[in-house]
Structures are given as structure tokens and as C-alpha cells.
Amino acid sequence: MPRLVGVALPVPLFRTFSYEVPEALAGRAVPGARVVVPLRGGREVGIVTAVGAALPEGVTAKGILEAPDAEPALSPALLQLGDWMSAHYAAPPGLVLRSMLPAALTGAARPQPAGRERTLVTIARELPSLTARDAVFKRAPSQRAAYEALEGIGGAALVSHLMERHGVTRATISALAKRGLVRTDQEAVMRDPFAGRAAPATDHVPTGAQAAALDVLTRAAPGDVSLLHGITGSGKTLVYVELLRHVVETRGRTAIVLVPEIALTPQTVDRFRTAFGDRIAVLHSALSDGERLDAWRALRSGERRIAVGARSAIFAPLRDVGAVIVDEEHEASYKQGETPRYHARDVAIARARLEGAVCVLGSATPSLESWHAVEGGRMHRLSLPARAGAGVLPAVEVVDLTRRRARPDDRVAQVLSEPLQAAIAETLDRGEQAILLLNRRGFASFVQCPACGYVATCPNCSISLTAHKGPERLVCHYCQHQEPPRADCPRCGGAVLGQRGLGTQQVERLVGERFPAARLARMDVDTTSGKWAHVHILDRVGRGDVDILLGTQMIAKGLDFPNVTLVGVVDADVGINLPDFRASERCFQLLSQVAGRAGRGAKGGRVLIQTRVPGHHAVRCAMTHDYEAFVAEELPGRENPPYAPVVQLANVIVSGTVELEVRAAADAAAGWLRRLFAARDVGGVAIVGPAPSPVERVKSRWRWHLLLKADDGRTLSRVGRYFVERFVPPAGRELRLVWDRDPVSLL
Ligand code: ADP
Ligand code: ZN
Fold first, then answer.
1. For residue 74, which of 42, 147, 188, 522 sits 20 to 30 Å off, Cα-Cα?
2. pLDDT in tens, 4-23
3. Domain architecture of the chain: domains with CATH
4. Which of 204, 210, 214 to mutate for ligand 1's pocket (most ligand atoms within 8 Å of CB)?
């Protein structure tokens, strides 16, 4: 009887199984195919990794139960990619292979809850101006809150969603409906707004720089990696589209395009759809398990030849991949936050190598990792140094908040400086649009007692609670804990708690006060929990139905609206002092990206950045649009003490519910590793810590970490695998251990 070796998908161990294959199933149990195996008294899905191997000593083979695939679920290239990921991220192979497959194929899919309410609420009457709104909702604040919540999520939502996520009651919805402000429809199904969308067709002739980049890319050797460094608005998308044409139409191969998040980049996705129509499968997070499986099948069969999607689209089951494109390669969302903790940019490079494809990483603000790789000769650099169409880079002005004093009773002026107010007024007068960025959601970032200094904090996390309006509540941004706001101080009994720090909700209110006639849209996590909320908001901006778009970092990505002529950054300093070695890099990227939204059309544009640290290199270099100057100042800071990209990092995070046990386990892990290095003569790996994580407690779990810094990546991979497999921490309640290779955040 033939034998096979495989991995069971739910098993978090570095262990394979060996089974005998009944004659009848032999043709199907081939490498990459799924098999159903008896395991722990039940049935589990596994993937065959090899056939015909000898049985290991002392192992008796059992028979497999089923071989459901007529064709292997994973191609040879994807199996090899799995090996690479398992080794690099020290992640069990079963979990790695499981992450490559749609949930419907792994036995992990959960049935959709049945019998959920399907009543759709839609805004029936728009109330664009603040004055009209004040009149309509004079004595009905809860109706206003519900109406604004609905508006914020794009104007349509299921009743259940409004009730569960926004605390709206059924009575309020009925009242709004009775007044003709909203409409309700039974059993309505929300249409997939991505289906059938397309951008207006363009027939741009590539600029000289675009043509030069394409020339290199179409002649690149298999596995070559290129960093396409193109300033905002330089026309990177056209380069991607023409490269895809070459690979898919001329060469007859297939391709993968990664974007940070589909919902935030509908314009980019629309351009691909315009160019390639039905040959594209868009893998977005709102697909149901069934729809995802359909898309997966269409890609595997070759019916669709281009996969466009976020992080996990890198595992698209395409054969003969000729190009792998990673747009906005610097985005932190490419890193997966659970095992396997892969970075899709690095997996893209590995997959391109295994497939013999060209790999393109595009960004206006490349990660220092990629820049370092260019300097080390591991990537080519292609550059698009000028805007492609009619636009020119906008002038960036800094408003130094330390030199301005607003009257203490003028809250608007404290938040929006005079120059920013004037710029907004001028923009509105000309009938143009403005974008305002504040990378902090909620109303006030914390509440504090002015008498004793008490700050309301989360009972589960070591972080202060953020004040939110509509309904009024205090919210933890780490664990979603919510509580009603307090009137008095629980510590000293003081009568009033002050609200400190600024959030998008407050800016929305102040902008509304100052510019009551302006049509304002807010885009942040709180207004985009509905399925298609992002797309609805961005479509309204594109149609000219919004004068001012206000939001968090969500609004900084990829948007291309020619009528946006002003970008205002309300507070550039949010995040600049976080205790993370990438804080400056992230700040520079965010400022540069949001500045890049202005002046994309013939009308030009202007950017105002409010800051208290105008001399900080992240602010200074964003002001002059000078990426290379930023790198020149930032990179030396990564050398001593060394951080990525100068060394390779792995962050070991220990967490649990008892602080002393967590600390003991972190100490034990560090001791174990130090002894391993001494015993095995492992050199070139330094251990920093253990120390409490900057955010010490999250969701009632204490967190300690130690950081490993290695000169050589392969050594770090070997150490990781050994550690994850062998290290047994001392006993502790709910103790958990995470090996995070190439971490994007140390918080
Ligand atoms: P990026 O992604 O690099 O920020 P986009 O791909 O969004 O830039 O392109 C910016 C704008 O320039 C788009 O409106 C696009 O249609 C336009 N554009 C791109 N290439 C050309 C070209 N060769 N000629 C004219 N306009 C172009
Ligand atoms: Zn919390």
C-alpha cells in the first residue's frame, strides 16, 4: 500500500503524520491535496506533503478516511512557500498551510448564525447643514445620534447592526421613520458595491519615467525584486496595469496584486477592473465564506487570472504566476497579527522567487527595510520622481502651535489655528474640497480630574479610556470595554472631570460650528463598521457631495480626488513619541501620504501641518517631500542601538493573568535562550530584556517581552524554531508565548 506524509491543519506542532492510502484513493492523495484523517478520536483535515516515504521507526500507519480533492488544493509552489514560512516565522506547518486556504476548505468555517434580523434602514432625507440639523433634532438628541451614526456608516445599515454596534434602540429608528428621515425595508439584501464597478477608461500615454520603469520590469529576470519609489500622484497604478498587461496578455501568465485594504482603496481596484474586467478576482474582507471559495476556485481553474486583495491574497491558488505586485509596501497592515505572523511583503518576495515571477514593491514612502535592501543590492530601485498628470506636489506649510495662543474660551481656535481656518474658508469659497487628518478617534483622548489628577483607565488594560459621544461613553481602544461617563471623580470626589486631548468626533463638532454650511463626512473606525461604509463615504467625496472629509489615517491612503485642494493636519504629533523604534518613520509616512492627497488636479493644492515639534525630522522632511533626507537622518538612528533594518528582530511576548508568573516565565525564556547560545556556540544574536511591554496589560493579561537582535536571519530562524518547539515555561495561569519574527510594532 502506498504511504503518505502530511500535516493536520489544526495541529500547532512541528509534526507530520504518516498514513496508508487505500488503493481506491491513491490517485487523489497526491502532494498538496487535502485528506481527512482520524485524529484524537475525531476527523481532521490535513494536507499531503509527500507520498511514498518510508514509515518512521515505531510508527504504525493508519488509513486515511477520505481524499476530497480531485485536484491538489495547494500547488507545488505554495507547498514550498509553506516550508519557507514555517521556517522563517517559526510557525507550525499545519497552521501555515491552513492560512493559505479559504476557511470553507479547512473544516474551520463556522456556519452563519441563522434567523438574524434583515431589516435595512436607509437615510430618506439628507440634512447637509448644521443649522437644519439643529432645528430638526432640537428635542431629540437620541434621534440625532442614531441619524448621525447611520450617516457615518454610509447612509444604510441593518437594524441589528445599529442596535448592536451603535447602541440605537428600535423605538428611535421607528421615530425617525415616522418623521420621514429614514426608510426601512424588510428582508433587503445589501448589494456588493464592488461588483460591476469600474473607473472611467483612460488612455494615458506613459510618461518617460513610467516607460523606463516598465522597460526594466518587463525584462527583469525571474525572481527579481524591484522597489518602485514613486512620489504620491506619480502614476504607479499605470505602471502596475501595463506590467499586468504584459504578463497576462503577452506572456499568458497570471498575477497577484496586493493592496493594504480593499475598502480603503476602491479607486485603485476600480482601475484594475476597468483594465481587465472579468479576468480579475477581487478578494475583499466582506466576502462570505461561500463567495470566497467561489473566487478561489475561479483562480485555481484559470478562469480568473489576476487576484487583487489584501494580505492573504498572496496565497491565491494561481499557477504560473508571472508578476507579484505589492502596492503601498510600507503599510503595517501587511503583517498578520496571529500565528503565522507573516509579513505579506516578504512572503510576496518569496513566492515570486519560487514561481519565477517578477516582484514589484511600490510606495512613495518605502519602508526602511526595502530601502536598505536596495542599498545592499538585493533589490533594484525604479523611480518616478514627478507627478504624472496635471498635478504638481503641493506646497506644505507648518503651523507652529507653540507660537500661537488662542483665547482660552475659543475652543475652535485652539484646535483649528487661524491660518488653517482661513485656508478652509477659501477652499470652500472656491467650491473645492478639503481633507482634515487627526489620527485619533473618539471625542477626547482621556478624562482627568483637575483637582487630584485622576485619569479614568480601562479595568482590563493599562491605558486610559477615550471619551466618545453619541451615546456618551468611555471606551477602551484596546479591548472595547465601555462604561458610562462619570460626573464626579471616584478618587477625591471632585465635582467635575475635565476632558483632555482631541479626537475626530470633537474636531467634527468644532468644524461644524465654524463652518455650519459645509457638508462634512467623518471617516474612522467608529463610522466605518458597516459592511460598505468606507466605499459609500469615498463615493460621496468623489461625487462632490462632501466639502470636508475628516478622518484618521484611513483617509491618507491612495485617494485620488482632483478637487481636493487643501489638506490640513490637525495634530501631526499624535504617535510621534510612542515608545516604538518606528514611531518617526510612521509619522513621516502618514504626513507624506496625506499631503499627497492634495493638488492632484490642475487646480493645485496646499497642505497645512499643525505641530508642536516643527523641528522634528519627520515633520521637516514631510514638509519638503524629501524621502531621502528622512532616510539619511533616520537610518543612522537604527545602528546604535541596532534595530531593523540594520539587524533582524524577533520579539518574544509572554502574557498571562498573573503578573509575577508572567515575569517569571519571561525570565525563564531569556535564561533558556542565553544557555542555548552558550551551549551551542550561537553567535551574533543579542537578547534585550526581558522587560514589561510598553502597554503592560491588555485584555486583563500582563505582558512582558524580550527582543532578539540578529546579524544573520538564518540563525534567528533556527533559534526560533528550536525555542518554539522546546522551551517549556514554568507553570502559570493562562500563560501564552508568542514568537513574533520581523515585528511591526513593539507596543
Ligand atoms: P500614485 O498611485 O503613484 O499616487 P496614481 O496612479 O493614482 O498615482 O496616479 C495619479 C494620477 O495621475 C491619476 O489620476 C492618473 O490617472 C494620472 N496619470 C497616471 N499616469 C498618467 C499619464 N501617463 N498621463 C497622464 N495622467 C496620468
Ligand atoms: Zn481595555
1. 42
2. 888 889 888 888 888 888 87
3. 3-105 (3.40.1440.60), 116-189 (1.10.10), 208-390 (3.40.50.300), 395-444+501-636 (3.40.50.300), 648-741 (3.30.70.600)
4. 204
